[in-house]
Structure prediction request, 150 residues.
Amino acid sequence: MRRPTGVRCEGVRYDTVVALMRRPARTRTLLGWIAVAFVGVWIVGTVALIAAAGERGADDPAALHDRAGAALRSPDGGARLHELLLDAPDRGFADDYVERLQAAGSPVVLPTGADRVEIRSGPVLVTLSVTEEAGRWYLSLLPPGGQEPG
Prediction:
């Protein structure tokens, strides 16, 4: 092999320099495949997480009451309650809400009307609205409209 002009190989064999110059092409190919694999795993993981989360809200008010009661009694209640709240700012809020209700006692969800539920936990009593939006039922932090039952 003839040395190309402009390449200085002082103290290093020419074959070593050529081998080092060829290596980045394989490295680029390997990095490309790693990037493609990463993107593929990310897409599959995102789709799996969305599918596992299910729909927010409940199919009907009775299912909403049942799911809310179960969420308030479970150790991961904040995540489960967040799926049922229409206007909760973030999951941290739902976590704190459930933690405080559980600290006060044993939370129980009681329907008190067509558009409201009461959550009783020891001395704490919270009234939430039951709201339908886009065919799904949610608990709303806004107070129920109309008169309190008497």
User: Anything to note?
Assistant: The mean pLDDT is 81.
